[in-house]
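Course assignment 3, question 2. Fill in each field.
Student: A.L.
Task: Predict the tertiary structure for the chain below.
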Amino acid sequence: MKKTNLMCALLVSMTLAACAGGGMKSAPAMMSDGALTGANGMTLYTFDKDAAGSGKSMCNGPCATNWPPLFAMDGDMASGEYSIVNRDDGKKQWAFKGKPLYYWVKDQKPGDRTGDGFNNVWRVAKP
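Answer field:
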């Protein structure tokens, strides 16, 4: 049930962003307690297997089920340290300093950082 709540929160966040109109009005992530978070307040992560600046995510298929991407909406534009990468499924994902950003499905509430260090390849995204 908790996984469902997280997915609902992600969908609501993405829907609100889409309804706000085309183009990014502000940064796709915020700072909270030294970490980057999505608009929903959930911690964002980077994946060591993603090469910074490659324009590609190495987390696809089942990986992306556990590590949902921070999706970019049509019309969003890269700005500053934020860029957009193309995913294998054709969707677009936000990256920070060239590293794609992800949520961790097991984080239950804003401030959770249970994915930090997972399998020694996942890191909390920090500015």
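Instructor remarks: The chain is about 20% helix and 20% strand. The two ends are 32 Å apart (CA to CA).
Grade: pending
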